[in-house]
Amino acid sequence: MYCNWIRPLLFSLPPETAHRLTLQLIGLAGKITPLRSLIESRLAPNTPQKVELFGLTFPNQLGLAAGYDKDAQAVLGLSALGFGHIEIGTITPKPQAGNPKPRIFRLKEDQGVINRMGFPGRGADDCMKRLEKITHLKAILGINIGKNKDTPLEHASQDYTILIDKLYNTADYFAINISSPNTVGLRQLQHSEYLDSLLADILDAREIHRNLMNKFVPLLVKLSPDMEASDLEQSIEVILSRKIDGIIATNTTITRNNLRSSRAVEAGGLSGKPISQLSNQVIAFILSVLICFLLYTGFEYFAYLPGLRKIDEFVIRLGINEHYTSMSRGVIDIRDITYYLAVVVVLNEATRLSLLSRKWRRKT
Ligand SMILES: Cc1cc2nc3c(=O)[nH]c(=O)nc-3n(C[C@H](O)[C@H](O)[C@H](O)COP(=O)(O)O)c2cc1C
Questions:
Q1: Does residue 321 sit in helix, strand or coil?
Q2: What is the CATH number of the domain that holds 136?
Q3: Which atom of ligand 1 is nearest the CA belonging to 325?
Q4: pLDDT tens digit string along 26-50?
Q5: Alpha-carbon span 197 to 206, nearest angstrom
Q6: Number of folded domains in the chain?
Q7: Has 354 been annotated as catalytic?
Q8: Using an 8 Å Cβ cutoff, are 311 and 288 in contact?
């Protein structure tokens, strides 16, 4: 039914109209309890594979990436559709309009999308009110946070900490978005000179709420696929030294390679099939850096991560999958990462044995 008539109907509408329409319908379905239960019973995965990650139990491996439900309007409906985690946002402290329309473009021939939304949204207070009304959510709720367009980079950490203050109570995890290409300057925050103090401020805010509420909310940093290798390595070093809980790889790219669609000239972030190889290469690179740290530091480095059993779980797209555009194709090309995964498997085993032997030595 979806392929025969819903998909062609949606594709005949402008992308943002189709997006708004589906979001409203899913939101509405989520509010009507019998309808929600019916959808849930029809679509719930038969044998869901639970995943323990960052101290959270994800009901299954498939999640919805940030950008689809920016203002948490359809969380219950999306959960009924079977998503194990839903990442709302990017939320900014104040409401803002985003870039002028049109700002989403389909690249049909390439099975991709270019968007230059620029974080349109109703702001933190509106989001907080809506989330506080939600009870019995089965999915894990991730909150993706970013800065307002008019906040200078030097004051960016204030925006992130305001969001943590307002939304801590309702979040299962926070995704710190410093990688969207549509907010001027935002991606500079990924570089070590900004990143270290930004993460320090965010961690301080988390510590306050963790103690106040006796609730631990993991922090994940969302990275871009467009960083130079040396910059990415430095950023990962900062992320590890600040004891961040995980990395989301990756956001959209501003690169354009081998695209056929006429819309490929549009400015913005490209997602979907055209970025899958790049994204996998970045994940592979991140894993290789993690492996180097692991070898260099003699397995001590990762001991801080609560509930972390495998270093590949540090990168969210390996432990669980988070998709947006690629949902319509549903395939992840893992050729680039299989080599690293093999190394990871060996190293995980080595870590386990090393911890076991240390425990055993302590006992004797
Ligand atoms: C229309 C659109 C809006 C998006 N908005 C956001 C956003 O607000 N924050 C964010 O971190 N990522 C945003 N993304 C990026 C996605 O979350 C995802 O990281 C990216 O699209 C790559 O995954 P995919 O190829 O499965 O789409 C957006 C993507 C699209 C297509």
A1: strand
A2: 3.20.20.70
A3: 27
A4: 999 999 999 999 998 888 777 778 8
A5: 14
A6: 1
A7: no
A8: no
Which residue has the least CA distance to atom 5 on ligand 1? 67
Q: Which parts of the chain sit beneath pLDDT 70?
A: 1-3, 297-314, 317-321, 326-344, 354-355, 358-359, 361, 363-364
**Does any domain span residue 355?**
no
Catalytic residue among 179, 180, 276, 279: 180
Minimum-distance ligand 1 atom for the alpha carbon of 222: 11
Domain of residue 11, residue span: 2-337
Q: Can you list the positions of beta strands (E) in the chain?
A: 51-53, 56-58, 62-64, 85-91, 104-107, 112-115, 140-145, 173-177, 219-223, 246-249, 269-272, 321-323
Residue 187 lies in a domain: yes
Q: What would the pLDDT profile of 66-118 be if each residue is shown by its tens digit?
A: 999 999 999 999 999 999 999 999 999 999 999 999 999 999 999 999 999 99
- The answer to whether residue 157 is domain-embedded is yes
Cα(135) to centroid(ligand 1), Å: 26
Compute the distance from residue 271 Cα to the ligand 1 centre, in Å: 7
62, 325, 329, 331: residue to mutate for ligand 1 pocket, most atoms within 8 A of CB: 325
Task: State which ligand 1 atom lies nearest to the alpha carbon of 144.
Answer: 11
Whether the CB of 183 sits within 6 Å of ligand 1: no
Nearest-CA residue for atom 6 of ligand 1: 67
In a domain, 358, yes or no: no
Amino acid residing at 58: F
Report how far residue 85's alpha carbon sits from residue 46's, in angstroms, rounded to the nearest whole number: 17
- Report the atom number in ligand 1 closest to the C-alpha of 119: 8
Tokens matching residue 227 = 């960083």
